[in-house]
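Below is one such record:
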Amino acid sequence: MISEHASPLATIGGVDAGGQNIYVAHTARHLASLGYAVDIFTRRDSPDLPDIVDWMPGIRVINVHAGPPSFVRKESLLPYMAQFARAVVDHAREQRDAGTPYAVCHAHFFMSGLVARRLKQALGVPYVVTFHALGRVRLMHQPHDEFPPQRCILEQMVIDTADAVVAECPQDELDLARHYATPVSRVRMIPCGFDPEELQPVTRSEARRHLGLPAERPIVLQLGRMVPRKGVDTVIRALGILERRYKLSPLLLIVGGESAEPDPRRTPEIGRLQSVADEEGVRADVQFVGQRPRSALRYFYSAADVFVTMPWYEPFGITPVEAMACGVPVIGARVGGVQYSVEDGRTGFLVEARNADALARRLAHVFSDPSIPRLLGKRARRRAFERFTWQRVARSLADLYAEVATAAALTRPAVAQGN
């Protein structure tokens, strides 16, 4: 696997540490359990990191020297990808010469796709790619994008030479066809997932006791990366409407950020959201929690009456599935993967992105009768287990890898030993 900016070893919740890190970590674990030996190439972003970490049985994390050994925003990483690619090719050549060549490469994000493309050119290793976000879709929602302007051209290059492209939801599949002319025959729709061992629900009363939360007050949860496109400001504005129009005062928990303490200096988005809460007159009803380890997340999910996610766009969105796995209904934006994981009216509700008024109406409906979140939550948990476990995801990926590797073995020309 290649995941240039999203290491499975990173602490989740920061600006560049979210769903991709979780995806890589969990799929690697479950692929190893199926018998794969997995190497994960990621960029060395700290001088304290060793070159190779034997992370788990069957899994190594290889920290590639490319650019400074410090944090670099993913928007600024492209100049280091040639150096990254050379290091990966050199390592893969050593693997081949030792008699253990890589059977297939799975690239994550477009820059990792460039590295996989170079690996295929040099050594004939077939590759599949999961973009996790597409540049042309991003530009529709964030016109002042800070990625290099050639991103979309590079994505097209990766798509054109990939052996298969993994779409995370039907919308992702549609976007690949519409914006990149990707043939349907080369796209495989495989969603993201959750780990039942990691996210076993606990009773609401126990979760609230564990977190020191009020036993009876309605609680809304927002959890994830603290960046503007996640639409947390819409959730806060909906809270203001709830209080003014519906005379409801739930507690809104906001989990995420760059530090355990919710520090606006470390996480500027928290400062902006605090200002929005002040504008709406709900500062006392909004609790910024800060970054929390994944081992604590099941308590936050289980403590909530409803989970809310209102991104402007979302290639998939792992947190809604995690909430569903804990038996919590989800109110989400009608975008990307959220509209696939959430069944409108059955496991939660869908509303238009950036529409605080519509979100407030749905929240008022959920809080109007205690039986509503209970029923929606039961259905949500059932759907999560039926469709979205990492074990199911890994098996689907393994099937795809086998197809790609077999096809490549039948069609590739012999690669010169001197390459």
